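Q&A log
Question type: sequence-to-structure
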Amino acid sequence: MPGDNITENLKDMALELGTDFIGITGSSAFQSSDYVGNKPQDVMPDMKSVVILGVSVPNGAFDTLPKGRAEYTNTLMAATATLRVIAFQVAKFIERKGYKATIAPSEGSEFGYWYADRETLKADFSFKYASYHAGLGNFGMNHLLITKDFGPRIRMTAILTDAPFEDDEVIQLPLINDACRGCMKCIEICPVDALTEEGVIHREKCAEYMFDVLGGLRCGMCLKVCPLY
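Response status: OK
Response body:
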């Protein structure tokens, strides 16, 4: 790859491999008192950068819901598998440059493995919070990342590394997407009332519905009705 800017080379490589978007934020983002989740530094104490990789999900996967939940779930898993292959190549690139890199799982339970804390249902750190600080989007009332080009219809993965990549220079968006304040469609459609107008998400209701009622299939209704895509 031309040039010797490792950050730009990393982004070019990720896009060439098939990501639709990429963002980078530093470890300081997780030091804010506003952040209440788990910290990536607990996994990699010398972590300096979080690299977010994402792809959009085909709209057809949402249009067939709720009847097509099997197809929807399978499409999500395909997106996750695609990102893992890309992230592996990106992680190898980082290590060829003399740094460490490891790939974080993209959600609580996939491919037969359980990743999140079973009590809190929280992951090792928030991809969405890292993405927000990288300027990739902001939050919807459904607690999902709302991106400019694809809305919430995305999948993401993240790489933790001790490489001091250049943070993306961004104009910080408001934490909650402005269009969400007068919408509330995701709250109204939720089959188990896991979302509230006060901005609270009851993770346990969402998890119980997916695993106990749907047998592990993903719900997706809050994404189906979101007009921001």
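Response note: The chain has one domain: 6-177.
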